Amino acid sequence: MKKLTFIVLVVFSLSLSIFPVLAQNAPTPLKEEIPIFEQIFFYIQNYYLYDIDINKCQYEILKGLAPKLATPANEEKTVCLDKHSAFHTPDEIKLLDEEMAGHFGGIGLELETQNNRAVVRNVKGNGPAEKSGFLAGDIIAKVREEKDTDYTDINDVIEAVKKIRGPIGTTVVITVERSGTLLELKAVRQDIRVKETERKVFGDTGYVFIKSFTETSADEFEDDLTVFSNQGINKVVIDLRNNLGGSLYAALEKLFYFSKRESDVMVTIEQKKLKHASTIKNSMGKYVYPKTNVPKNPGKFSNMKIIVLVNKNSASAAEIVAGTLQDWGHLVIGETTYGKGVGQTVIPLSDGSALRLTTFEYFVGNSKRRVDKIGIKPDIEVKWQSKSDQDTEKFFEEYRESFGNPLKDPQLKKALEEINKL
Questions:
Q1: pTM for the predicted model, two decimal places
Q2: Measured between alpha carbons, how far is 17 from 244 in angstroms, rounded to an integer?
Q3: What CATH number is given to the structural domain containing 157?
Q4: Which of 25-29, 58-62, 145-149 has the lowest mean pLDDT?
Q5: Residue at 74 is within a domain
Q6: 168 phi-psi bin (left φ>0, alpha ψ -120 to 50, beta other)
Q7: Considering 41, 63, 157, 343, which has the largest number of Cβ atoms within 10 A of its Cβ?
Q8: Domain range spanning residue 125?
């Protein structure tokens, strides 16, 4: 059976959160006594990016109360919201908040989907899971709290993440399947902090792989660049491949480090329903260090020579960074990106749930280039060559072994060649 693999680092993929960048245009809070259904349609009517037939939308939702006998291919397109918008339960919002914050109560497991099962991809070193005996390849079968007797059967990765995470200091009991045998393992939850960047040095060139754009990723990125600068390294490859996005604020903060002029446009945002457009430029005092509240200096690393790596899975906030840096004169190498040029606002509802609604379109750089359904085209196209294109399982194994290795990774190899010409 074919295997489809993805890493659960950002629970709600391809999301681009607008706040706090345009907080002054935040949706108006509604009174708690207004039913959730009415709250949702108020926000759709007043803030949704696209024009829709609200009556057809209501009918579509009501028809969804019962399963359909058949779903023809031509009926799969919704008349209501786009694929990036969604309703989230309070539990799902809690997970989203944790992902964006970059830390949570957990045991240090990285999970992936294999054949519709939640499988351990990696065990965090010296974390609770490693100490409890979890191994890569373990299949998560059941989860319960130590204080409870009833297990929850695990059917997918999202459910596994929701059940495994919890308050710091509490114990979770997990039944795993290993080589056909069921094992029960216990682990005490700790504060797990997700490292969003990986730093390497190849000769006289620095390399930073950015996994996603969380609240902590910009500070980690600055730390990586500072290490390179202190080592006398002024050439850096920024790897945004397989980066599905995250916080718009975090993306802009990364661009802030490379902006040379106060007039540099990082992104332009259009909110059509509000008839409002915002051009966000570089400005002193826009970002501060969280511990000291001291303003960061724009253009701190603007003298570095930069090359950006992208592929078809680089999306949303990653496209803003890649496209704007390209617009500012930096080389982009790899494959044309996903093409998600719209962003979402997560709107809290009165019961703790939330509506993630597409509310704006963005345009990158000084040229205000459109990204939606187009993507960022690289200056130098380098496709990932694989001998296993027809075998999904072998392809992913080969891809993971080669990624970030200049001897096996053709896109990184080309980037290192080109940066030496700058």
A1: 0.79
A2: 12
A3: 2.30.42.10
A4: 25-29
A5: no
A6: beta
A7: 343
A8: 103-193
